[in-house]
Amino acid sequence: MSKPAFLRRRLVPSLRHPARVVVLAFAVATLIGTALLMLPMATESGAGTDPIAALFTVVSAICVTGLVVVDTPTHWSIFGEVVVLALIQVGGFGIMTLASLLTLLVSRRLGLRMQLTAQAETKTLGLGDVRTVVGGVIVVSLVVEAVTAVFLGLRFLIGYGESPARAAYLGIFHAVSAFNNAGFALYTDSMVGFAADPWICLPILFAVIVGGLGFPVIFELVRRRNRKRWSLHTRITVPVYFGLLALGTLAVLVLEWGNTLGKLDVHHKLLAGVFHGVMPRTAGFNSLDVGAMHSSTLLINDVLMFIGGGSAGTAGGIKVTTFALLGFVILAEIRGEPTVHVMNRRLTDQVQRQALTVALLGVGAVMAGTITLLSISPFPLDDVLFETTSAFGTVGMSTGITAQLPAAGQLVLIALMFIGRLGPITLASALALRDRARRYELPEERPVVG
Amino acid sequence: MSKPAFLRRRLVPSLRHPARVVVLAFAVATLIGTALLMLPMATESGAGTDPIAALFTVVSAICVTGLVVVDTPTHWSIFGEVVVLALIQVGGFGIMTLASLLTLLVSRRLGLRMQLTAQAETKTLGLGDVRTVVGGVIVVSLVVEAVTAVFLGLRFLIGYGESPARAAYLGIFHAVSAFNNAGFALYTDSMVGFAADPWICLPILFAVIVGGLGFPVIFELVRRRNRKRWSLHTRITVPVYFGLLALGTLAVLVLEWGNTLGKLDVHHKLLAGVFHGVMPRTAGFNSLDVGAMHSSTLLINDVLMFIGGGSAGTAGGIKVTTFALLGFVILAEIRGEPTVHVMNRRLTDQVQRQALTVALLGVGAVMAGTITLLSISPFPLDDVLFETTSAFGTVGMSTGITAQLPAAGQLVLIALMFIGRLGPITLASALALRDRARRYELPEERPVVG
Ligand SMILES: [K+]
Ligand SMILES: [K+]
Question: Which is the most buried residue in A79, A81, B68, B188, by most CB within 10 A?
Fold first, then answer.
């Protein structure tokens, strides 16, 4: 299929510089959102919102994080809440679409590509690709959000005696928030009130897990039932994603059994354990009191939140593939193998370096943010590291210190949310799209390692 | 120079499996040391020491760490202290020698090699190499320790009115402890009593810095005045080592100016600042109350302690070259360069993977230890992370929780000290000595990163 030249010209240049496009789009949306949320009508009281709180809320929504400095249900009016919801949807849709398109540009065979007309290695996208991705993301988003909203809405209607309109609103809000891994809730204590209600928790878990897997994986799972035809990306993402989920669940159950899980029945303990096993990947609702959790639970969550979910989805973090690739590199090194092999495929040195760069820059960002917050706030490392990892991983869980941080601290979190949401994607894609060759080679020399 | 076959045969097999030799030697020394320290005569009171406390002290000494569960001056008799000192000397000498020899085996041109007869790429060591290294380490150790001991001894004699014998003992003990970056002190509060005394602090700093640079660097600095003839290893180590030292000093001065530095004059503040800027690389004395330091200071120290000092020296951590190499890899990635170049030399993919492996396994070890300690002790993350990093980096500074940890926690620290001291060296060398080739190559495929 040949495309008209004007279409190709319009699409290609912008996607040639994905970092700029993405950052610019997010900046514009942030400005509009902040202006809207600063309107008096956006607040319940009509008193308006100060710029930093409005900016924080907008960045948190558009980066689908869920950290808040004002209480969502009591501070914002319905208008304010709808603005937040729109920002979540725009942010989630934007990232899924752009990241999926960039993935297509970068990847030689990520499944999707094979569905389409072969386009060789030219690193341009045809209109067909864009249409498939945009259409696919819209369909998946709407279907999952609709199904989740129906279940939640019915439960709010029947189980909690809400009016039909209110139940529909609550259902839609939490469904959109869940699918986009945004973690905003219309309850001051998030999902703590529903910790023992599977009719609320399970639909949310469903939406969170599907959104967090990432569009390329969802696309392959839907289109290709035969596991042997899955791309390497999907074959890595699926087991690691669910492995981390199991690990998180186990950690919460073991470490919190007599603590935050203490008051619940055994089967509600299990429900809340699974709920909090899923949330670090990186949805951010909570059905237990995070601030009362044990230090060890918090640190395990820090690790899980940093790793995050699947690429090109609504989850944050450095992504499960990045984490897994580093694991494969280490394994190959320990075995003394000269090349890194994963499931009968060879990993290029380039991909290994990218994974290293994404992970270590992430560590650097979290460390810099943590040291800054520690030095300007009275909170201990447990709380501060949890807060910065939550912001970087766009998770949104908090031990409760967000609103008490000084303005400078909230700006640090805003920066971390932006870096966490846009950094790895724009960085990885910008890196992968560039292939500058050196004109000459220098002699090798090996410094001592370790 | 050709060597007799029987010499070559004896040296080569053991150095072919350096990991086993090193681990075995440390295990034997640990057993002997523990038996000696459990003798009643090793204690001041004559009451003997329980096995875990004795084992902990021995591992801490032989791994030149300096963490203690019993107070060195009041618990141990002179005999006990001399055993500790001997273990420090054996541990420091053993690691410096073995790591230097392994470095020679691994490295194609690390300066030393060029001084000797050319030995091609055969990965065997001649007797000449071994003699040069062992002799060099002994000379450097004795000279630096002697100079330091003289200065310290004179100060203890003149400034503090100690008897000549006692002053000599104090001088030798702290000189050996300082050069080997061991951090054991004969004062309950380490060097806090001497925070304002440059005649004590400066000789200790001198010994610590020289020991921590690592033997290959010291050797080159002494032998080759012309900086242009330095090996890449030295050219990386020197600026990064002193850069981290400056960074640590600055951090302590800025963050502790009104806190633990509060009571000191300005020029004593500077002295203590430099002292605590040097200690994370990884000597472990303290002239300020570490337990009273700000959370942000502790976290910066965690990072610095994890990085540690120079390779094949008495310092611990993942080593400054490992840290710097990862930085160069990231820089190359961000610039989009297909190969990683450092100071006109190319880094092989193999070296990059080794650095990655050493660093990430280190992170893994510290994280696992931290999560375990958090779950079995009541201490917050600030203290626990500082403790585990201090153990892994064989630093020996503590916020004061070591002795209060349950036995299982102390065993975790023992494991971390062993892993931190032996892990990176044996791992890196074992990796570098192995070059297994694959018989076939698999097709490439690139998963999505970030
Ligand atoms: K989130
Ligand atoms: K030490």
Answer: B68
Q: Which ranges of chain B have pLDDT less than 70?
A: 1-20, 105-128, 424-450
The answer to whether residue A188 is domain-embedded is yes
Q: Which residues of B touch A423 (CB under 8 A)?
A: 450
Report how far ligand 1's centroid is from the alpha carbon of A178 (Å): 8
In angstroms, what is the span from residue A315 Cα to ligand 1's centroid? 7
Show residues of chain B in contact with A328, CB under 8 Å.
none
- Please tell me which residue of chain B has the smallest CA distance to A368: B300
**B440 located within any domain:** no
Structural domain harbouring A50: 5-433
Structure ipTM over 0.85, yes or no: yes
> How many Å apart are CA A380 and CA B383, to the nearest integer?
10
Q: Is residue A11 included in any domain, yes or no?
A: yes
Per CB-CB distance under 8 Å, the chain B contacts of A324 are 447
Q: How many domains does the structure of chain A reveal?
A: 1
Question: Closest by alpha carbon to B365, among B294, B433, B300, B420?
Answer: B420
In a domain, A448, yes or no: no
Mean pLDDT by 10 residues, chain A (450 residues): 45 54 83 95 92 96 94 94 95 86 60 38 57 88 96 95 95 96 92 92 95 89 77 89 95 92 90 93 89 94 94 89 92 80 82 88 94 95 96 94 95 93 66 49 60
Pick B431's closest partner by Cβ from A333, A431, A438. Answer: A333
N residues, chain A: 450
B434 with A332: CB under 8 angstroms? no
